[in-house]
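Appendix B, Record 12. Input sequence as logged:
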Amino acid sequence: MTPYTLHPGTTVVMEPRYYGSIAWYAAAAACEHSLVNYGARYDKRRKLTHRATIADVNGPLDLTMPLTSAPRVAGDPGRHLTWADMTLSPHGEWWNVHRVALESAYGRTPYFEYYIDRFMPALTPGVIDRFATLRDIDAYIDGRVRELLGLPPALTDSPSGTVIDLSRTEPRFDAPAEPYYQLRAARLGFIPGLSILDLLFNLGPEACLWLRRQLQHNRLTLNPQ
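Logged structural output:
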C-alpha cells in the first residue's frame, strides 16, 4: 500500500488512457492495486484511450493520437477488436504536433523542463518504431507518471481481492477538486478535468501532496456505470 490508499485489498480495473486525467490517477491511487484493461473490446467512441486534454494558451486543448487496427486482426472479420489490437498511425506526424503543443502550453511552468524528457520517447520521430501499439505507448506513459506520483506499477496479470471495474467509466471527484496553481489562471480561470500532465508540470513534487489531500477530503466516484 501507499500513503494514497483508501481501499486496501481492492483492485480497480481501468480503461487505457493517453496521459490520463487527474481523476483517473486518483482512482488508481485510491485502491491498493490497479489494472489497465487492454483486453476490453475496442469502441471508437471511447476517445479518452488516445486523447488527452491540456490547458493551452487559450484554454482546454485536446491532443488526439490516431489509431488503426493491426493487419492480422483486420484480416479476421469475425474477431472482436480489443484495445491491445490497436496500432499507432503516423498520420499528420502527430507526435510533433503534441510536442509543440505541450511546449507552448507548459514551457513556462515551473517543472516542465524537469519532467518533459521522461515523455520525449513518445513525442519525437521514431515513436511508431518504439511503440507499435496503443498498449505499448499508453503503458510507457503510465509508467512514467506513476514514478513521478510515487504509485506502484499497474498489475499485468489478473486482479485479486475485491474488484471495482471502471473499464467503461471515467472516474470523477464527487465535488469540484481543490484548485491548484495553473500558469494562466489569472486570465483563463482555473480549468478542471485536465490531464495529469497539467498537475505535474505546474506543481512538480507537490502534485503528490495535492492528490493525497483530494483523496482525503473529496470523495471519488468509483461506481461502475
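Residues 4 and 212 are 6 Å apart (CA to CA).
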